[in-house]
Amino acid sequence: MRKLKLAIGLGSTCAGCDIAILDLNEKILDLAAAVEIVFWPTAMDFKLKELEEFGEGEIDLGLYHGTIRTSAQEHIAHLLREKSKALMAFGSCACFGGIPGLCNLTSKEAIFETVYRDTPSTVNPDFTVPKTEVKEGGYLLTLPELYQEGKALPQVVDVDYYLPGCPPVVELIEKLLPIIELMKTGELPPKGTVIASDKTLCEECPLTRENKMISQIVRPHQVIPDPQRCLLEQGILCMGPATRGGCGARCIKALMPCRGCMGPTAEVEDQGAKMISAIASILGVEDEKKLSEEDVEKLMNQIKDPVGTFYRFTLPMALINKRVIKR
Amino acid sequence: MDEFEPKIIAFLCNWCAYAGADLAGISRIQYPPNIRVIRLMCSGRVDEAMILEAFARGADGVLVCGCHPRECHYMKGNLCARRRVVGLKCLLENIGIGRDRLRLEWVGASEGPKAAHVISSFTQSIRQLGPSPLRRDQVSSMIGAALLEV
Known about the structure:
The complex is a heterodimer of chains A (about 325) and B (about 150).
Chain A lengths: L3 E7 L5 H7 L4 H8 E5 L8 H5 L6 E7 L2 E3 H13 E7 L1 H5 L11 H11 L14 E4 L2 E4 L3 E6 L9 E3 L6 H5 L1 H9 L65 H4 L17 H10 L12 H8 L5 H5 L17
Chain B lengths: L7 E6 L3 H10 L8 E6 L7 H9 L4 E6 L10 H19 L6 E5 L5 H18 L21
Parallel strand pairs in B: 1-2, 1-3, 3-4
Helix pairs in contact in B: 1-4
């Protein structure tokens, strides 16, 4: 039978998604048997030219991981979309912006100032910063442009499938194999399919919920949590109620709160809003009739860095997707 | 240049705040025309995403009004709204929009003058704060554009 052509492109990424694919271990042989990898720069010496030489829709499945922050990354995303029959956003960065998406909390100028001027080890009196074009000795040297904001893949191109997770867990990547088998018959899964659970993480969480209210928020390093009880009900900010399941609750099993890398469930537009709602339903409920607005505010102010906590992986896809910076 | 006229989205609960604002109208108490009222059955119905979307679409301020504590038609929907609004204020402060653009007030059904006062004073404070940085005509002054179609 014909092998499917698989291309793996990348943007602003830590390459943890590539490692996650390698974490398939012996199953990677099944993958190698089912597909022909035609582009995967992290793993082998592929050149962009090879991807450019493919015809439109000649690749069967394109995986893209990483946030889109530069013109070069945007170019790869467009190329991969054009050459692939189906394009999958692989990992949280491609699905919703991920950790690099937190760049929207600052500006390009501020980053340049820090990196090329303000760090103690930098000596740069002329404040020389990277430019997209420089003429040097008769040659035109170019660099990709760094954009003001990071974007998730669906904000740049049309995306067919999603596989969230930072990085995606092996159990979910394994689900790609039967999908690839299915694709060989010419049958594609419905557009918009998310390879993960449709329910929140709480549905698969092994800890016990007792419907207790809390009056204090603690950070993970401040307490040794009870290994049987819901972390949120112990005052530890766990993103479980606002996060899609499917990861197998690995962080919870190690008694670390969920950080929300699987993104929101299908019905939820804004993960952070949902999480505030979840916290508001248990924090400061007891005796609240005696509390004033200031008292409630004191309770809520215990949350350090709300944006970084609630939108750690989804800031570019949030309703308000960047910090307002006054110049 | 035209004077800045704030656009304010007001979520009013059906039983107290909307009736209060209605009474202000019936009593012919003057208040600024800057608010766009959205009537809900209870202030507890106000979802965080609704408020965030109002800001994302360029509202300069969002006002949430419900029944006084202990007077909620649904027992404690208003207290639920208070927890949410306060939580959201922390987020808005953190993301640079500022907590003062969101306000929660209790307005009873018989409090026509208070309804007018709340609307006037909130409009006044938003006028002083200036246009929301997320407003479409303000986008050039901030980083990029975060706007949806209005």
